[in-house]
Each structure stands twice: as C-alpha cells, then as structure tokens.
Amino acid sequence: MSGFVFSQKPIEIESGAGPYLTDTNGTQYLDMGASYAVASVGHGHPAVVQAVKEQAEELLFVQGSYPVAVREALREKLDAIAPGGLDNVWLANSGTEANEAALKFARHATGRSKIVAANRGFHGRTMGSLAATWKEKYKQGFGPLAGDFVHVPYDDPDALAAAVDEETAAVILEPIQGEGGIRPASTAYLERAREVTEEAGAALIFDEIQTGLGRTGTMWAHEPAGIAPDVLTVAKGLGSGLPVSATLVADWIAEDPGNHGSTFSGSPIVAAAAGATLDVIESDGLVENAGTVGGYLKSRLEELEGPREVRGDGLLLGVEVKRGANRHLKHLALDHQILALPAGRTVIRLLPPLIVSETHADETVAALAEVLE
Ligand SMILES: *Cc1c(COP(=O)(O)O)cnc(C)c1O
Fold first, then answer.
1. Domain coordinates in residue numbering, the chain
2. CATH class label, 46-283
3. Candidates 2.60.40.10, 3.10.20.600, 3.90.1150.10, 3.30.390.30; CATH matching 13-45+285-372
4. In terms of domain of life, where is this protein from (predicted)?
5. pTM for this one?
6. Whose CB among 88, 168, 356, 363 lies 3.0–4.6 Å from 254's, allowing a Cys bridge?
C-alpha cells in the first residue's frame, strides 16, 4: 500500500469521530480516505465502541474450537449478505490472510496450482497474496514467492480466457482495482471470467477487500454484473479498525475446519466490532448512501477543469491528475484539512466513510478545485 508521510510536518492524530480525525493541536481533518477504507461507518461509531466495551468486559478471548455467540452471530451476518451459494464463512485477521485462505482452498479443491491474476492487481503482502500482487516494487528482494502465478492484462476478456486452462486452480480479481488506480472492470469482463473459470473447473475469487460492504453503492462491487464468484474476500471496512477479515466460500471449495486456521481469527472482541459495524451499515442505509453521495461526488468531480479522468463507483473514486498526486494530497491535507489517498503516482483516491453527506462532497470538490489550479 502506498504510504503518505509529511516529512516536515507530520500530522499526529489523537482522536476520531464520524468522518473527522483530530490531531494533537486540535485541528480537525475530514478523512476522505477513511484511513484506507477501514472507517466504513465513521471513526469511533458509538454502537461499535459500545459493542467492543461490552465484549471486552465479558470475554476477550477463547480458543476458536469453542463456539461463542458473538462469533457465530458474525458468521450468520456475513452469510446473510454473502452472494448466493457462498455459505461457508472463514474468519481471519487481515486482508492478505483472507486471500491466502482463498488461494489455499482453491488449490486444495481443484488439485491444481496455477493461479491467474491481473496486471495492476493488489492482493496483499504475504508470500501467496504477494505472488498474486502485480507490482514488482512490492516483490523485489522477497523471492522466491509462492509459485505458479501468471498475470494478464486487466479488463481484457480474451487475454484472461487464453490464460485459463485445465491446470488453473483459480482466477483472482478485484472488480474495481483499488491500489492499481481505481480501475473498474467491465461487466463483459466479469461475465467472461465467470464463464471461463466454470468451463475449466477453476475457482473464481473476487477480492472485495477494498470494494466490498457497500462502498460502491451495492453490497458487493461485482453485483451489478449479475454473476457470483466461488470465493469472496472481505476485510478493510469490516471491523471499524479491529483486525478482522473473511473468506466466503462455495460448498465445493469449502475445507474441513482442521485444514486451515489461525489462533486469533474471529476472536470475540473483533467479532463484536465487526457485527456492530455490519449492523450499522444495514440500519443506517449506508449502502444506499454510498450510492447517492458517491454519484453526486462523482458528477461534481467531473465538472472540475484539472483532472484527466474520474473513475469508480459509489464512494470509491479515483481522480487521475496530470502530475504527481502526492503534491496535491499534501496541499489538501495541510491547506484544506482534507485527508485523501494516492492510488499509484497520478491518482487521487477518495474513499470516505460511507456516512458522508453531499456537504462533505462539496467541501472536497471546492478544495480540490483550488489545489488542482
Ligand atoms: C488492502 C488490500 C489487501 C490487503 O489487505 P491487508 O489487510 O493490508 O493485508 C488485499 N486486497 C485488496 C484489494 C486490498 O485493497
């Protein structure tokens, strides 16, 4: 993930509430990056804080082999929002681990090893997920990574079809590439990915770690394409900052519980945070809000003079600028108290909490207009 540090004037954050972060000098910032899409329901949402407090007093941890109500409730909530057929819920502690599980399960279920991933894709930084990640910079010096991964151009149905064969265990894709520059896949591409994996008997894995849980205006970014994957991974916005991720898996790929696991996965405390976060997303209509406010923000961004292109859906938007994005991000933060993120060298990435309003969108556009001049 691309870091962003202000060398001369670091911003030291002390507290957060809703879409705002406050630094040690009392300056308030509008967090239009949701701290890497994590603060999906805003910072310090009272319902999440309360759930964590109550759980902390009751039970911080017990080994995963004992069923605990709060963890079972989270599984059920995830099952309820999972795409059709993905009824098996595996919990883990981070995005990259959710993808490791996905890759392991696909290999085990198919008895094959080849994984097809996309150029510009990002899937995490542990040895397997890193092999699926595209950018050389992330991989240099860490080899050999997990083997038998190939990369093909993104959003190119024919290139994907040509790469998938009887030796393919899985295709792993982001429906909208996040780190790769906010690049949405066409419906035709996702449909073709579904077709060719089904024909070859390979698993289709959608990495919705950044795009999932309502961010794009639908629960899952792939939903409008009208297809379902065999495996779906979710993380960033799930636990309001507590380390929790999930791998949602179709029956034919599901593993026996003894075949994979991790000591901390789905611990009571993170399960409480995730359960409360999912409840807020539902009760406050945040999927719909992401669609409405995101659509408004996108149309306002498209009116700006400076950008080459505005891409994305809902509250996952990329503004492609002519020169380096980091300079603009610094001005946004220091002169306008708006925190956004880069996605590659030339893209300003906006992925605010799903609770933002049109007023926050207007503030951001007004600041960007000045910064891009
Ligand atoms: C952030 C991200 C990951 C990795 O998640 P971590 O929690 O940082 O390991 C994987 N895939 C996508 C699409 C991501 O955005």
1. 13-45+285-372, 46-283
2. alpha beta
3. 3.90.1150.10
4. Archaea
5. 0.97
6. 88
